[in-house]
Q: What sequence folds into this?
């Protein structure tokens, strides 16, 4: 990778304390008006681990991601990122602390190129100020060249280099989703939150997203919390699974153990879910 001022460009992953969990969510509850979206949800993501969040529509999966990255307003409980308390912190502060996020609907700048969109992901780590832009043009130019080279290398890593100079508005939906994920990866965050990275994609495109996630994880060791509906993708990438139903944790444990369980099949099909008596199933 390209180096920046004698350090790897986008150095969030280099400063994390891997003796701590990447994410700790402790008894988090979120309400919208009188509607409880999450109730006493506790979960964790270990360093270098991928955890998939699964469940039916309306289970609170995206709300959980939003609570972690600070975009739900006020939540109750506690959220920690590599040991640092980020409960109800401003989203900008959380992002600057090394937490990256992609979205169900990829929010790209259509009039900008793919490369320019990916470079937007470096805004918190590029390393120069407004004063530098006025007074230290040499420094700014050097850092921007390093960021551009790094973005191109990252795009090549996931086979998107060929569209680097294409306007984002010309991309099909599948490549747009992938560009959104790469933009979130550009600053080398210490943790990635991915909201339904394969939603709306066909089988071949889902396979491309699977390869991308595994490549990013292998190359940078970034822990991920991934909301996902396609169980083939969950099986391929996730170390553990967190199952939500009606805003509460219904089950959690190693991926194969949970997905192959009778409890999972019953819960996901709704055959035996009782919101008054539901018991959390935890697998060692």
A:
């Amino acid at each position: 990778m390209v180096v920046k001022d004698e350090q790897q460009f986008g150095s969030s992953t280099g400063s994390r304390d891997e003796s701590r969990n990447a994410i700790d969510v402790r008894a988090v509850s979120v309400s919208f008006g009188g509607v409880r979206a999450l109730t006493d949800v506790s979960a964790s993501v270990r360093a270098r681990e991928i955890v998939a969040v699964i469940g039916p529509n309306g289970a609170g999966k995206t709300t959980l991601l939003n609570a972690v990255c600070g975009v739900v307003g006020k939540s109750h409980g506690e959220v920690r990122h590599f040991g640092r308390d980020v409960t109800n912190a401003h989203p900008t502060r959380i992002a600057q602390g090394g937490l990256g996020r992609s979205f169900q609907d990829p929010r790209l700048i259509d009039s900008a190129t793919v490369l320019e969109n990916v470079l937007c992901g470096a805004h918190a780590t590029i390393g120069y100020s407004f004063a530098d832009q006025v007074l230290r043009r040499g420094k700014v130019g050097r850092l921007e060249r390093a960021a551009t080279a790094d973005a191109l290398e990252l795009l090549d890593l996931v086979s998107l280099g060929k569209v680097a100079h294409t306007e984002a508005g010309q991309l099909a939906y599948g490549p747009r989703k992938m560009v959104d994920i790469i933009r979130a990866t550009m600053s080398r965050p210490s943790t990635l939150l991915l909201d339904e990275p394969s939603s709306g994609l066909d089988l071949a495109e889902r396979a491309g997203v699977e390869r991308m996630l595994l490549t990013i994880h292998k190359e940078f060791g970034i822990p991920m919390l991934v909301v996902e509906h396609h169980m083939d993708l969950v099986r391929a990438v996730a170390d553990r699974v967190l199952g939500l139903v009606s805003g509460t944790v219904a089950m959690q444990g190693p991926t194969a153990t949970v997905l192959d369980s009778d409890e999972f099949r019953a819960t996901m099909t709704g055959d035996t879910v009782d919101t008054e008596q539901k018991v959390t199933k935890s697998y060692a």
Observations:
- The chain has one domain: 3-282.
- Residues 3-282 form a domain with the Rossmann fold fold (CATH 3.40.50.300).
